[in-house]
Amino acid sequence: MVKHLLSMQDLAPKEIEAILNKAAELKEKVRKGEPHELLHGKTLGMLFAKPSTRTRVSFETAMTQLGGHAIYLGMSDLQLGRGETIADTARTLSRYVDAIMARLFKHDDIIELASHSSVPVINGLTDLHHPCQTLGDLLTIREHKGKLKGLKVAWVGDGNNVCNSLMLGCTLVGMNFSAACPKGYEPPAEILEQARANAKESGTKLELLNAPKQAVVNADVIYTDVLISMGMEREREQRLKAFRGYQVDSKLLGRGKSDVIFMHCLPAHRGEEVTAEVIDGPRSVVWDQAENRLHVQKALLVSLLA
Ligand code: CP
Ligand code: NVA
């Protein structure tokens, strides 16, 4: 059966570890300038229904460095944009490309795409999940802390796609996860349930709070994301009100461990979810996170295609 990555739940803890190890190895090859054309002649189709800077450029660069090729497929360039079905698009693309990366609105649409694809489908972000971001984040944390197991990650903000994947990823690999989200903006019950099962299995602590100050106590990592995700622009005023008190500033950062790191998937809105002082300050590792998207996605592509 063809393997897809739609959610972090599609990976076993051992598979996550193998991807991170391979990513570290490939990162070293880039540093040394050693060629590693492991996907020579392979093609990745990249379907985008929303904008992207990091996901698009890191996947495209990944394929170039691996000796393959990537094709950008914007919604308005495809017949999908004028009514061809997701199923027919998946069947067609499968006859040309070796893998499909897709950034879509509804998570159900990527499930539909994968169910009709005979090549691996990689989730490049949906309304519910962003697993490639989590893989890059785990590599970044491991680089900065030297380990993952037993660390505490505190999420402050919207219980969104990035939060969902991070919560699943952390609980899978044995990290404690504490989320502070305003009432009504918590992660969906079904994903919380999966994370609780992971935490039970890995013996870690998972807590959901409504108090940022409490969530970040003793944190090794403090993480936030935009308050208004792509497609939610109409909720702007309501969200800005709901997230009052959830901004990550120096005071909140100071409540974490003395060597706490600040993380953000980017793009960031300075003055909304985070202050400029924090994101541009010495505890911030956001540029390492952005870079590591490239390395983990190369490892992922190799594991799915080589
Ligand atoms: N973090 C992330 O996925 O960024 P892009 O939206 O720029 O791809
Ligand atoms: N939660 C954000 C992440 C962007 C990478 C969004 O969905 O817009």
How would you concisely characterize the structure shown here?
This protein is an alpha/beta fold. The protein is built from twelve helices and nine strands. It starts with 12 loop residues before the first helix and ends with a helix.
List the helices and strands and how they pair.
Layout: H1 13-32, E1 43-48, H2 54-65, E2 69-74, H3 86-94, E3 99-103, H4 107-115, E4 121-123, H5 131-145, E5 152-156, H6 161-173, E6 176-180, H7 189-202, E7 206-209, H8 212-215, E8 221-224, H9 236-242, H10 250-253, E9 261-264, H11 276-279, H12 286-305
Parallel strand pairs: 1-2, 1-3, 3-4, 5-6, 5-8, 6-7, 8-9
Helix pairs in contact: 1-5, 1-12, 2-12, 3-4, 5-6, 5-12, 6-7
The structure holds phosphoric acid mono(formamide)ester and norvaline.
Rg is: 19 Å
* Number of DSSP strand runs: 9
Number of domains: 2
For the biggest sheet, the summary is:
5 strands, parallel
Ligands and ions found: phosphoric acid mono(formamide)ester, norvaline
Order of helices and strands: HEHEHEHEHEHEHEHEHHEHH
Strand order of the largest sheet: 7-6-5-8-9
| CATH superfamily membership of the largest domain | Aspartate/ornithine carbamoyltransferase
CATH topology of the largest domain: Rossmann fold
Cα(first) to Cα(last) distance is 16 Å
* Low-confidence regions: none
Average predicted local confidence, pLDDT: 98
Supply the number of helical segments: 12
- Fraction of residues in β-strands: 5-15%
Q: What is the 3D form?
A: globular
CATH class of the largest domain: Alpha Beta
Give the % helix.
40-55%
Oligomeric state of the chains present here: single chain
The CATH architecture term of the largest domain is 3-Layer(aba) Sandwich
